[in-house]
Design goal:
By secondary structure, this protein is an alpha/beta fold. The chain has four domains: 126 residues, 3-Layer(aba) Sandwich (Rossmann fold), CATH 3.40.50; 148 residues, 2-Layer Sandwich (Alpha-Beta Plaits), CATH 3.30.70.270; 110 residues; 111 residues, Orthogonal Bundle (Arc Repressor Mutant, subunit A). 61% of the residues lie in helices and 11% in strands. The protein contains 23 helices and nine strands. Helix 10 runs antiparallel to helix 14.
Length: 529
């Protein structure tokens, strides 16, 4: 496609000579208009939107420099060629300041102008290619960013990430996941019946309809789990609100998909959770309900009529943290056997039991050591093998194997506790003078989640990380107060405090004396001796 060029020249003979004698097509251009001065040219330039402007510098009403200044401000893509009969430095300097592309002295031959235009065409070609590459790169980055968000959300709802890490990653991804209540909604887009031919384009249209309905809602985050499955992460301020709004949304999605595409939306909703770290329970329930909820012919959303018996998640988490595998049989009989026996009678309950436990164990292992990939994280393959389990003994044995894997991860970390603690304490002693040192930074260095690090440190050392580092800093400050004549503000800085007033407050809180009083009492004691 040829680039467009516009000519502004007050001398009619010169203007017509340039217009008629330059081979515009050979130079890669199309002559799109002309004017006798800058004032007349402006509305024509706005209408024709040329790529190149050729203008005389000295014209009545509005000269070439004034015109170039306006064009560079309001139509910055236009390349400007100045024609001038003035071989003076100040004119050329003014043109350069305005960002003029070329400055040609009159008389200008057709040959010279052809060479200049050919060079400009090559420059425009290169800029066009760079814009297209930038557009393509931007599109790829947006796609990769969306994919990263999807992967993050799937890891979150399947228990593959700790709550602290989830919050940190969500901030990096620009996602707001903090709320009072959470739940997961699963949406499966399907043809009206099994005999209906599957149309990929119709499916994509249905998927886009859902995306358009949720994209501007701050309480919703959508991700694709599998080809036909969408995962909707839902936030709410109250139990009633999140429940009622989720039912309303499910009804809305179902009706829109049905009326706009003819396809059906199989929608299941997990129970609301108050903790972000428990969101995998809602996902597990939604996953099981999805398998039991038939596609309804009516426009009303209905959930499964099967009531899922609750699992004692607190007892499960306590056993994972403190229990031994030798006590598993007793734990199973008290916590899991009842629901296991129900599962033998109702297969979907058996699926729920295993799915929820797998996600809980995955979350536990992520909290203990997020570098380990759980060996039982493939939910689909485990679900397929459940048909072979027909007795309570088989259920118990399979679950025991899962728990054994998780407890071994815990033991592996516990076996290295002494060595790990020494490394942590050594690191803290080397870096406590850094006022910016935070527990989250230390836990990250040692590849532990902040929540696990906090519990581990307090259990092994006997005090919290905050108290430990505070005591270390105060002891260091006491030594400096006794052994040096440094000012209190300098000692504060050398002890890991940027604010001398806060240092004095903490010092008195810990020792019962201000830094000055402590130094004076130490000196008095030394003199008394």
């Amino acid at each position: 496609m040829a680039y467009k060029v516009f000519l502004v020249e007050d001398e009619i003979v010169t203007r017509e000579g340039i217009r008629d004698n330059v081979d515009w097509k050979a130079a890669g251009f199309e002559f799109c208009g002309e004017a006798s001065n800058g004032e007349l040219a402006l509305p024509l330039l706005d209408e024709s939107k040329p790529d190149v402007l050729i203008t005389d510098i000295k014209m009545p009403h509005m000269d070439g420099l004034q015109l170039s200044k306006i064009v560079r401000k309001h139509m910055p893509w236009i390349k400007v060629i100045i024609l001038s009969g003035h071989d003076e430095f100040n004119f050329a300097q003014s043109a350069i300041k305005l960002g003029v592309t070329e400055y040609l002295l009159k008389p200008v031959s057709s040959h010279d102008l052809h060479i200049t235009l050919t060079k400009l065409a090559l420059s425009l070609d290169q800029e066009k290619q760079e814009r297209e590459q930038l557009k393509s790169l931007k599109s790829k980055l947006e796609d990769n960013f969306a994919l990263t968000q999807e992967k993050f959300l799937i890891r979150l709802v399947t228990g593959g990430i700790s709550s602290t890490e989830a919050v940190e990653l969500s901030l990096q991804l620009g996602l707001d996941i903090i709320s009072k209540f959470y739940l997961v909604m699963l949406i499966k887009i399907e043809p009206p019946d099994k005999t209906y031919p599957y149309d990929f384009q119709v499916y994509k249209r249905a998927e886009q309809l859902i995306f358009d309905m949720v994209k501007d809602d701050p309480d919703l985050i959508l991700a694709k789990k599998e080809f036909e499955d969408l995962v909707l992460f839902v936030k709410g301020d109250s139990l009633e609100q999140i429940t009622q709004e989720s039912l309303f949304r499910a009804d809305l999605f179902k009706n829109i998909i049905q009326t706009q595409t003819g396809y059906s939306a199989n929608i299941s909703i997990g129970s609301p959770q108050e903790r972000l770290g428990a969101i995998h329970h809602s996902f597990a329930e939604a996953l099981i309900l999805q398998k039991t909820t038939p596609v309804q012919e009516s426009d009303q959303f209905t959930s499964s009529t099967i009531e899922i018996p609750p699992l004692d998640h607190k007892a499960i988490e306590n056993y994972l943290r403190y229990g031994a595998i030798s006590n598993f049989d007793d734990f199973f009989s008290k916590t899991l056997e009842t629901i296991g026996r129900i599962g033998l009678q109702i297969p979907i309950i058996k699926q729920y039991l295993f799915v929820d436990l797998i996600l809980t164990l995955t979350q536990f292992i992520s909290d203990v050591d997020n570098s380990i990939i759980p060996p039982f994280s493939d939910i689909n393959s485990i679900q397929k093998s459940l048909s072979d389990i027909t007795t309570i003994e088989q259920i118990q044995e399979r679950i025991k194997n899962f728990f054994n894997e998780a407890i071994n991860v815990r033991k592996l970390n516990n076996n290295n506790d002494y060595e790990l603690l020494n490394k942590i304490e050594e690191f803290i002693h080397q870096n406590f003078q850094n006022a910016d040192l935070k527990m989250s930074d230390v836990s990250k260095i040692f590849n532990l989640s902040p929540s696990y690090f906090s519990a581990f440190f307090k259990e092994e050392v006997g005090v919290t990380f905050r108290d430990y580092i505070c005591d270390l800093r105060i002891e260091h400050a006491k030594n400096l107060l006794v052994s040096t004549h440094l000012k209190s503000s300098v000692i504060a800085y050398k002890s890991g405090y940027n604010d001398p007033h806060y240092f004095s407050f903490i010092f008195k809180k810990k020792t019962g004396k201000t830094p000055k009083e402590f130094r004076n009492s130490s000196e008095d004691g030394a003199h008394a001796k």
